[in-house]
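Q: What would this complex look like in 3D?
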Amino acid sequence: MYNRDVVFREVKDVIKHEVQPKEPMMIEFEVKEEESDSVVEEESEDEEPQTPAVRRSVRERRQPERYSPSAFYSNFALSVTDDDPRTVKEAMDSKDGKLWKEAMVDEMASLHKNEAWDLVESPAGRKPIGSKWVFKKKTNAKGKVKKYKARLVAKGYSQVSGIDFGDIFSPVAKVTSIKLLLSVAAAFDFEVE
Amino acid sequence: MDVKTTFLHGDLEEEIYMKQPEGFVVKGKKELVCKLKKSLYGLKQSPRMWYHKFDTFIRGLGFTRSKDDHCVYFKLIGDRVIYLVLYVDDMLLFGNDKEIIQDLKTQLSFKFDMKGLGAANYILGMEIKRDRAKRKLWLNQRKYVEIILQRFNMQDSKPVKVPIPIGVRLSAEQCPKTQEEEEDMSLVPYASAVGSLMYAMVCTRPDIAHAVGILNRFMSKPGKEHWTAVKRVFRYLHGTSDYGLCYQGRPGLDKVLDIHGFVDVDWAEDLDQRRSTSGYVFNLFGGAVSWMIKKQFVVALSTTEAEYMAATHASKEEVWLQRLCSSMGLVQGAIRIDCDSQSAIFLANNPAYHSKTKHIDVQYHFVMDMIEDRKVLLVKVDTLKNTADALTKSVSSEKFSLCREVMGILGLEK
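A: Here is my prediction, written as structure tokens for the whole assembly.
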């Protein structure tokens, strides 16, 4: 008879098994020592009638690595593990410090070219918002670093409603419109660029 | 193609002061601050200011903005036509004349810094492939699907044929009950996995819409069975990663569209609240362009009532699609919607009151008005041929692949 109604208790077992193997092993070991101490003389007499002990594998039993809690976490950890620096100091201290610096100078040049701001006296009663550098290595399809990019971002979270911003809604195209037009383009043989 | 340093093009309306950037404080002017003139990245109003700038520019070039999607612009010059769709900094141009497309590109590049000016291969992570001789266009997300399979470690899983098999009924009953179970489930990235599936579903994969719609209900407290179901959807995607929408037209049909809808319902499908699920899909030139599944807001007393409400949901979308088309100069007549409930069709076509239907809320009679105005045609279809069936319930793998094919979801041709 086969039982096809098997329940796999993936998550629960993963957590228990890491702790379990150690404790039962210890107990077993102690029992054996006691036995050998007290029964050592009788051993030769009783050897015959004793049923031979079942040979048990001495191999240490372990859960496969893929079921260990650490593997479980790393399996599902979202890929946030990029090595891009988080602060200016980290960027400058890293081995690509020179490249990051160039990227920052590029970004500043772009900001100046676009006339992003004027330098003025700090106005009374207004608290200027902060800014932050964001560093990102741009890679191509094969994962090779194509460009070192530094972007200056304003800390928008400290903006005050009514003073620093009013309406902020901005529309984007609906995916349905995009698909409708792509479908039309296919049927009517339009250029798509 | 897309715009470089998009947001820096936006002009600010408000007075905003910012500290000088780290590492670039001007010597001897340490106490000065930056009074911003352009919308920097990170400011709350940056996307709005950019949109405003672009909108003003493109309308200055004589483009008309669609009233039904504010990011669709078009221009008609005789029988030459050009469309522009804007998605923040990304845009697509469509048109039947190379020259005016080139003109627009030149003007755009002159005003903004543009990138990727050739034929479009990607939009929003969707890959566009074409066979112009056959008038075929494929839209797929195989790169995205591969990325999410890896992210959730499902790249070596065994493929399956359907996302949710018949007989799997998920309910709140399976949510964790003990604290231990809850802790176990807290190790599982349920919400982000379902979110990743949802993006694929919204863009090119109506075939997993039913599964995602159900899995979404357990976001706050997922149980083990729910997680198993999520993994099954990944396994399904693994077997069909290169599947996507395929549109195909026939030569000689220019200018006339033929949108065709399907609507269906799964009565009292939700085991917890006993509400029904509406589903619809609209096809155009062999592929789905719009789809949705939605749990109805009220309990339907009969299948007729549930189908009637679903027909209302579908006709709302239908009206929008029709308007969008006509606002862009495309001809689309009354849209046919296939429904497999004869009684719902009768109810929608004949404003007769019966004791069994007098309680139906006013909003759901919308479909009746649309039929009277001849904007919608509700037509009876055999359940076996109703494509929307696969959107609302688990079906056999044969039926599933049939529905998938009708929605134009095909693998890439090798």
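A: To summarize the key features: Confidence is low (pLDDT under 50) at residues 18-45, 70-74 of chain A. The helical segments of chain A are 10-19, 22-38, 43-46, 69-76, 88-93, 97-113, 175-188.
Q: Very helpful, thank you.
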